Amino acid sequence: MRRGLGVAFLCAIVLAVTACGSSGSSSSSGGSSSSGGSSSGSSASVSGAKVLPASALNNPPKGTITYCTGKDTTGAAHYVVSQFNAAYGSQGYHANLVEFPASADQQRAQFIQRQQAKSGSCDVFSSDVIWTAEFSSQKWLYDLTPYVTANASKFIAAPLQTVHYGGKYWGVPQTSDAAFIYYKTGEAVPSTWQQVYTDAKKTGGIVYQGAPYEGLTCDFLELAFAAGGQVLSADGKKSAINSPQNLAALELMVNGIKNGSAPQSVTTYMEPETDQAFSSGKYGYMRNWTYAYAADGTGSLKGKIHAAPLPTFAGAGKASILGGHNSVISVYSKDPGLALKFADFFASPAQQKAQILKFSLAAVIPSVYKDPDVLKAVPYAPQLLQALTQAKARPVSPVYPQISQAIYTNVNNALAGRESPQAALKAADSQINSALSTF
Ligand code: GLC
């Protein structure tokens, strides 16, 4: 994938990783940090990208664009596509939905495959917040700076920052994300991660995303950042993963499986399997993203599911990881104006309200969080807004996927008992350093 890198791209990487130090490494207790993307490659530069004028969305050529996204387990993607078609179909504008797998890593692989083939088969892609640096550096995305700067004031700062890289905007925020601890009516609301694990043991267990993929990096970093750990050194040049703070976080997770606070099967769970396990009613607690409130609050758990902000790591701090997705437009799209019209529609107040109301997906515009209908349907909406605002970004780097892979592979090895926590962090450390040294 990184064959044939041009000088400009190499330069972008070097600068980006230098810049990424402040996110992956902002110190200690984390909870009050508003680093939800503070280091958006501010000193990196991506030059020569095609720029889409903001006016492109007015009267674009009639036709059908394809919207590619991860598996639509909740129906949220079908909903926005059908709403777009209902609003604009009579004018000759249509959107088509293509679903990729549920795994974030596989969604990325599918998009990369298409972009490497210079295929316009995804006009709009639902791009995870962590991919902006990589995709824009590869020149796979339209530069949407004119549209985004004209609309910047309507967005919440943290999701807006995730489309910013190298001084430009590469996407339109779609939905933001943060994780919560879900629990059934009657369970206590734990105030520390340690208490979560102790209480979980008495109530069937905690389920989370422990499979080797991006989700596990998030699950681990929430504890690690709360414990005061970091991914990279302050200058972004070296790994800082092998630290006592990260070890304390990993040991809590590993011991949780050993002593029965979490089932061994979490080592194979991504989001859908976590939902299924929790919906069975067998487990007291679940760590999952905000969508799970609507998705799991049906069936036997209807009216019985509650969401609590992520707790403190005893003796240290609190941290949330900023998640979410952005509408990015492929440079190979044949109708980028219509693609922008779709991205703009997704970010409209009516669609943003519908996404949180029906699917408990975090809106990217602030007004929605005060809407009485929203507060009724998603009672933790104010805490959700607070979590997004205070969440920490994952390192911003074109080689972030390799950094993350080093984390999730080794953390998964430790959870599955194949490696000690110490050995896992040591291995992750050397793999992160070699990812950083590839340029
Ligand atoms: C959620 C988040 C995303 C994260 C992914 C990991 O979709 O929104 O940012 O990378 O989960 O599985």
Give keywords.
five-stranded mixed β-sheet; 439 residues; disordered N terminus; alpha/beta
Structure at a glance:
This protein is of the alpha/beta class.
Q: Could you walk me through the main structural features you see in this protein, from its secondary elements to its overall organization?
A:
The protein is an alpha/beta fold and 439 residues long. The chain is built from 17 helices and eleven strands. Strands 2-1-3-11-6 form a five-stranded mixed beta sheet. Strands 8-9-7-10 form a four-stranded mixed beta sheet. A two-stranded antiparallel sheet has the order 4-5. Helix 2 links the parallel strand 1 and strand 2. The longest helix has 18 residues. The N terminus is likely disordered. Bound molecules: alpha-D-glucopyranose. Alpha-D-glucopyranose (GLC) binds next to helix 8 and strand 11.
List of distinct ligands in this structure? alpha-D-glucopyranose
The number of distinct helices, counting runs of at least 4 residues, comes to 17
- Estimated helix fraction: 40-55%
- Strand % is 5-15%
Instruction: Give the low-confidence spans.
Output: 1-40
- Please count the beta strands (DSSP E, at least 2 residues each): 11
**Element-level helix/strand string:** HEHEHEHHHEEEEHEHHHEHEEHHHHHH
Instruction: Tell me the structural class.
Output: alpha/beta
Average pLDDT level: 90
Report, as a whole number of angstroms, the end-to-end distance. Answer: 14 Å
Order of strands, main sheet, comes to 2-1-3-11-6
The main sheet comes to:
5 strands, mixed
- The coarse silhouette is globular
Rg to the nearest angstrom? 21 Å
